[in-house]
Write a structure and sequence with these properties.
The complex is a heterotetramer, with two copies of chain A and two copies of chain B.
Chain A lengths: L9 H5 L8 E2 L2 E2 L1 E2 L10 H14 L9 H20 L8 E4 L2 H15 L6 E5 L8 H10 L2 E5 L9 H7 L4 E7 L11 H10 L3 E5 L3 H4 L4 H4 L3 E5 L10 E5 L1 H6 L10 E5 L2 E4 L13 H16 L2 H20 L4 E4 L8 E6 L4 H10 L2 E2 L1 E3 L4 H7 L4 E5 L6 H19 L1
Chain B lengths: L6 H10 L3 H13 L22 E8 L5 E8 L2 H14 L4 H6 L2 H7 L13 H15 L8
Classes of the chains: A alpha/beta, B mainly alpha.
Bound molecules: pyridoxal-5'-phosphate (2 copies).
């Protein structure tokens, strides 16, 4: 990474997000629920609106102008995402409805083609339910088993232990890049190497990475990588799955329907090549176009400056929250994005959020779809404040102040 | 412990308290008026799922007392405990006929606690109300958890 | 149906669709590709934009204002769709990404729970690939078989033959309500009765019905019914699946992930009740809100007047096209929506579309994802002009004129 | 039948023809200059999938002639047949080195035929170009279909 990141013009970035410019309970909105979903810049909203107002048509089989425009825009979106993750070719990108859909696609098709009785799938103790449940379902169908890379007390993967868990029966290693509950940025290249060395397929859940970490699938060396549009400033209902060409070609189809076939008859059906094979039915055309615009938006920013800004937010927020009496902060890795998951002694997180809400501060509470991690941490729920590029230092102050006040209110 | 105040009193107090912090403190205080549910009754069959906080809810119809609804409940979160108090104020001691005609959502809306209702069926408060309604609708008293 | 439908103000309806107001190749756009996807009224576009600019947040587990608003809007969308199809309860509506996704959900979960070796699934010869391929995949997995209701020469279901095809092994009857290739409006209630009498589950592909036919699931008596947002003036990437409560409750989960679980641990996972059970991951929140707005838009129109307008378009277009020499019109049922699928002797449909496009007329050509029907009709492809509420009689004239000209040009 | 005209001539003619109907007729006429592909060669292995029209494409490198590319093809649609003529004008008779440097898409764009290119890989024209490129990239002559 170059050494002198230029300062980010946060005000100008912020100005592009219309939803941030509002009051909640009479207070300026301080949106710290970015790990759940990010706000959308005007350019993304405009891309969706422009599609609907000028080029809306179904893609691929139309020979008229609107359909040609829609197809071109949709395929350009695929190319944009390919470049966003540095894939070799646009055909290595499948549009899905999100990371959950992508991981189900993989668990289902690998379950039907690659996993057999006695095989093992390696996950980690910090996975989101979306990267656990599909594998449980697939493993149950074929009689395969799940191994779990342990998480250390500061919230990092125990890669030492991971090495011992990989064996000849390990067929799939599926791992989160950036934990939505701990903020930890895992050494995903090391995890993918581990998989490759064992001849296993490597899958990266990049749901949280999308907005925070530059992505280069060649550098990581993964076989598959999944993104959700809505977590990287794009629309809801759209995701992208990168898959290495030869891996995609080896996969059987997932859903059946229009566009994914070569020919259909009641006597038998043959399937199209990827990416079409995995895109049954009318795709989320406007969503793909919006997600590509979000990727373009992200690519247009100075990623080093973003990193520096987010690291600063993380540091100041961490230092400040630890000054509050009784705060337990989960996820203390040196290598993390500004996600602060915490509890305060004697206070249920459910009670915290509505109080903060009255100060305009939006945080999330609950198990964050990571119940196994919650069990590992010995808690059932926690509060989470997640920052992103458009958050400011002043917002950190408002958050800390609201938290202090909430503590008084709830303990007093 | 004098028990949960009557609904009218709760609504009036909410109206008098003009700032949210005070209403909030009152809601938490309300939670403290709910009779304690012994740990022995906080069992899995009484769990209300779909809430981030833990909620146990036991309810039935009182054989002795005109088949009126009885409710015993608890939560580990202050706010949810406060919401429980209001649910009890709305429903406990009512006949099933009365219960069927109450618009609980409207009351929570009036108290500006609507946010806790959103996401029907995945939410503890909504699930509690649904359980009471279910009991009222089916009229049959079930010992313990209904 | 009441006897005197009031006249529709087409100009005012049309004015609500911004995409219609444009030129293509210097000619006013005549959009006759509505069976592929419809254009979107401004209110739908606005609903999506408003969500992103003011209420965007993830749903269900947030305790802050934006999340409460998003959840409320999302659940109100569910209630709106429930009322649109006259379901008993909002919980009978599952949001999916479209009809294809819905039918895959059903084929996959019924395949895992209801279909066994030797069982039979009854389809029709006019099904869209989306209602064929998922069943082929499911049947192949369990060793079940597909039966096919024949289609008569004028493009209707042979319900006489259907009765003979239903037997004790028939577990599922899945049927298109309105054919996207023939325009035929099937007697779907009769098909559902047939299924019910045999103790089979009835599924209705209502992709094309959404925009054209008032829907009442109680009247039809179906167990499941699938809609795509984009075919009924709503956004892309969103669909709704109606399922009778007890049917939904009996289904195992489809995709695994966040929101569809009750609790997750590596030792075992339990699932939530419907509809949550079938909505893994972050849903297409903006899509659902847009689709609900489209349903509201449709419900606000005088459905009888729409019916009368579309019937008139159908009649005049049919009469006119038959005057053109060498035209073969497929789908001649008396009970149809204004979808005209045709070929002209000596002309490949592929050649027709670009010529019409130069006259501003957008039609679709190809197999319309109904290859078995094409086989039945003895053709490999056809041209299709599909009209909807905002199309005018003048547009029928432009279409017919362009077609005449294309014929001259292509036949030399 | 004099065969497909040279690419320069095609481009010039498109430029001269200022109205789309004339260009359209010219495209159809171009299709008629493509040497007929005998039915016996219109076999499944020569099928180009992804096009609504049927397309058969056979290509290889000419042993006798400097390993230059040869193409024989046919379609049942006039327009696609015209596009085939242009593909042949672009690629047939070229060395694989030459073929690798040609920007076929740019030519179709110039001729205002870009619409037929959209939807890469699902479209006959794009698939035809991809096949020629594949041949050029791998340099190895395959008898018949490559
Ligand atoms: C009758 C019918 N069924 C199913 C579908 C598939 O719908 P979607 O592509 O929205 O999933 C379509 C649309 O092409 C259709 O017309
Ligand atoms: C790490 C991680 N994985 C997977 C997901 C699931 O993403 P989605 O809900 O967009 O499918 C999320 C988001 O909640 C996440 O944070």
């Amino acid at each position: 990474m170059p050494s002198t990141p230029t300062a980010l013009d946060i005000a100008s970035i912020r100005g592009q997000f219309p939803a941030l410019d509002q009051q909640v309970h009479g207070k300026p909105l301080v949106y710290l629920d970015n790990a759940a979903t990010t706000q959308k810049p005007q350019c993304v909203i405009d891309a969706v609106v422009n599609f609907y107002t000028s080029s809306n048509a179904n893609v691929h089989r139309g020979l008229h102008e609107l359909s040609a425009r829609a197809t071109k825009a949709y395929e350009a979106a695929r190319a944009q995402i390919a470049s966003f993750v540095n894939a070799d070719a646009a055909a290595e990108i499948i549009f899905t409805s999100g990371v959950t859909d992508s991981l189900n696609l993989l668990a289902s098709t690998l379950g039907a083609s690659t996993l057999a009785e006695g095989d093992r799938v390696l996950l980690t103790h910090m996975e989101h339910h979306s990267n656990i449940v599909p594998w449980q379902m697939a493993c149950e169908r074929v009689g395969a088993h799940i191994d779990v890379i342990p998480v250390t007390d500061i919230g990092e993967l125990d890669l030492q232990a991971a090495a011992d868990l990989v064996g000849p029966q390990t067929k799939v290693v599926s791992c989160v890049w950036v934990s939505n509950a701990l903020g930890t940025v895992n050494d995903i290249a090391a995890v993918c190497r581990l998989a490759a060395n064992a001849g296993a397929i490597s899958i990266v859940d990049a749901a949280q990475a999308g907005a925070h970490v530059p992505i280069d699938v060649q550098e990581i060396g993964c076989d598959f990588l999944a993104l959700s549009g809505h977590k990287m400033y794009g629309p809801t209902g759209i995701g992208a799955l990168f898959g290495k060409r030869e891996r995609l070609e080896a996969l059987p189809p997932y859903k059946g329907g229009g566009e994914m076939i070569q020919s259909v008859s009641f006597a038998g059906t043959t399937y199209a090549a990827p990416p079409a094979r995995f895109e049954a039915g009318t795709p989320n055309i406007a969503g793909a176009i919006g997600m590509a615009e979000a990727a373009r938006f992200l690519a247009s920013l100075d990623r080093d400056a973003i990193h520096a800004h987010e690291a600063a937010l993380n540091q100041i927020a961490t230092e400040s929250i630890l000054q509050i009496e009784g705060v337990q902060l989960f996820g203390r890795s040196a290598n993390k994005v500004p996600i602060l998951t915490f509890n305060i002694d004697g206070i249920h997180p459910y009670d915290l959020a509505p109080v903060l809400d009255h100060y305009g501060v939006a945080i999330r509470t609950g198990h964050h779809c990571t119940q196994p991690l919650m069990d590992r941490l010995g808690i059932s729920a926690a509060a989470r404040a997640s920052f992103t590029i458009y958050n400011t230092r002043e917002e950190v102050d408002v958050f800390i102040h609201a938290l202090t006040r909430a503590r008084q209110l709830l303990l007093g | 412990m004098t028990g949960v105040p009557p609904l009218d009193e709760i609504i009036e107090t909410f109206e008098v308290l003009d700032d949210w912090e005070n209403r909030f403190e009152y809601l938490i205080d309300l939670g403290k008026t709910v009779p304690i549910l012994p740990l022995s009754e906080r069992t899995e069959d009484a769990r209300v799922h779909g809430c981030q906080a833990q909620v146990w809810l036991r309810l039935g119809l009182d054989d002795q007392n005109d088949h009126r609804i009885w409710i015993r409940a608890a939560s580990d979160a202050h706010i949810v405990q406060g919401l429980i108090a209001i649910v009890m104020a709305i429903y406990a001691g009512r006949t099933t006929n009365e219960a069927r005609t109450v618009d609980a959502e409207a009351i929570f809306r009036k108290l500006d606690l609507e946010a806790h209702l959103s996401g029907t069926r995945r939410n503890g408060l909504a699930a509690m109300i649904a359980r009471v309604r279910n009991l009222a609708a089916h009229q049959t008293a079930v010992g313990g958890d209904a």
